[in-house]
Amino acid sequence: MTQKSQGDIWKEWATKAQKGDKEAYNLLLVDILPFIRGRLAGSLANEDWVEDVAQEILMSVHKSLHTYAPDRPFRPWLMSIISFRKTDFLRKYYKNKKVRESVGGHDKTFDKYVTDPQYSGELKDIEAALNDLPEKQKKIFTLMKIEGYSAQEVSDKMGMSVSAVKVSAHRTANKLKEKLG
Amino acid sequence: MDLSEKEEKTKNVISGLCDELCVVKLSPHPLKRAILWCSLGFAYIGVCLYMTRIRNDILDKLVDFSFVFELMLTLSMAVSAGFCAFWLCVPDMRGQKWMISVPTTLFAVLAAWIGLQTALLSYEFPDIHWHTCYKEAIMFGVIPAIAIIVLSLKGKTTHPALLSIMNALAIGGFGYAAQRLSCGSDHIGHICAYHVFPYFLFALFCVFIIRKIYRW
């Protein structure tokens, strides 16, 4: 007896799902999720984005299930949706001028030598200096300057105004400069 | 929201989608839609030409190589672009991505053909004013355009820009051919200003507006 390939199994589940089989549909979505994450992981910068786009892809699969032809392989159909959603996500992301400016700002912060092992001692000093700061200031600085969130995103997270977030990050940077000489 | 919360949300999305699932009505094969649209397009333009007028020198023109070549080129571009549009309504184009090269090549040949005529024949750009050819361009173009857009919306494309370009080529091709059959002028300036220009505007409309409608 020949063993079915993953593509054949997906095809079978997709065909059953089109007939309203919820169990097969659940199996299909659960099984394609690691594949989707794997395809996205190589081209998206962080895991949060991967998860966001993966959710959008699952919803797109649901919306376009009627366009899948049971006589065709499932994987190329899914790959087209993955590629479309990924491009769409990146297009929207880079279209956002504020984010673009924010990314430009980070370029200055993340100069090449920051991750260079010979500067790891300095990195530890920065971490120690950060730990001495009040929790709120530390969080804002970490989110904006280390994790790469825009001022708008941080303000949404913290429930503060954008200008207050920017002022806080700026003051923290100045404090760190003073501390580290 | 941290990563584990997002993963939890993804699980919830999956269970939500499974709950929503009902029997899906499959999209018809793109060939069926393409044949339907092309038949309707030809029939509509035939009726329009019958109701308006066919150029008086049509019998002479049908033995003129350059006229017949241009007409065949335009119609084949329109039909192939129509077919491509319906294949593009399926995310992976059913594996037939090569199809895109047919209308784009034909369009390149048509553009070169018109460009060559413009360069070789005496080109005088006429004064732009409201002309019966514009009215005919609208008449030939609007109904097939609505039909192709409505039919395209029934699918889910992963190439909205390409789909809108194919729509523009299909409508432009049909309309241009119909205008060459109805308008008696072969002057290249007139052709550019009154036959090509309206479809050029339609192409811009497709590329900037219709493309957005196809996003999902």
Give a verbal description of the structure.
The complex is a heterodimer of chains A (181) and B (216). With 181 residues, chain A is an all-alpha fold. Chain A is 75% helix and 0% strand. Chain A folds into 2 domains: 1-115, RNA polymerase sigma factor, region 2, helix turn helix motif (Rna Polymerase Sigma Factor, Chain: A, Orthogonal Bundle), CATH 1.10.1740.10; 121-181, Arc Repressor Mutant, subunit A, CATH 1.10.10. The longest helix of chain A is centred in the middle third of the chain and has 22 residues, at 74-95. In chain B, helix 4 runs antiparallel to helix 5, helix 6 (132-153) packs antiparallel against helix 7 (160-182) and helix 7 (160-182) packs antiparallel against helix 8. Chain B has one domain (28-120, 128-214). Chain B is 74% helix and 0% strand. Chain B starts with a helix and ends with a helix. Chain B is elongated. Chain B has 216 residues and is mainly alpha-helical. Chain B is built from 8 helices and no strands.
Question: What brief labels describe this structure?
Answer:
heterodimer; A: 181 residues; mainly alpha; Rna Polymerase Sigma Factor, Chain: A; Arc Repressor Mutant, subunit A; 2 domains; 75% helix; elongated; B: 216 residues; 8 helices; 74% helix; 0% strand
Lay out the secondary structure.
The complex is a heterodimer of chains A (181) and B (216).
Chain A: H1 6-18, H2 22-41, H3 47-63, H4 74-95, H5 97-109, H6 120-131, H7 135-146, H8 151-158, H9 162-180
Helix pairs in contact in A: 1-2, 2-3, 3-4, 7-9, 8-9
Chain B: H1 3-20, H2 30-51, H3 58-61, H4 65-88, H5 101-120, H6 132-153, H7 160-182, H8 188-213
Helix pairs in contact in B: 2-4, 2-6, 2-7, 4-5, 4-7, 6-7, 6-8, 7-8
Q: Write down the oligomeric state.
A: heterodimer
Mean pLDDT of chain B: 90
Low-confidence stretches of chain A: none
Largest interface (CB < 8 Å): A-B, 36 and 34 residues
Shape of chain B: elongated
Classify the secondary structure makeup of chain A into a structural class: mainly alpha
Cα distance spanning the termini of chain A: 72 Å
H-E string of chain A: HHHHHHHHH
Structural class designation of chain B: mainly alpha
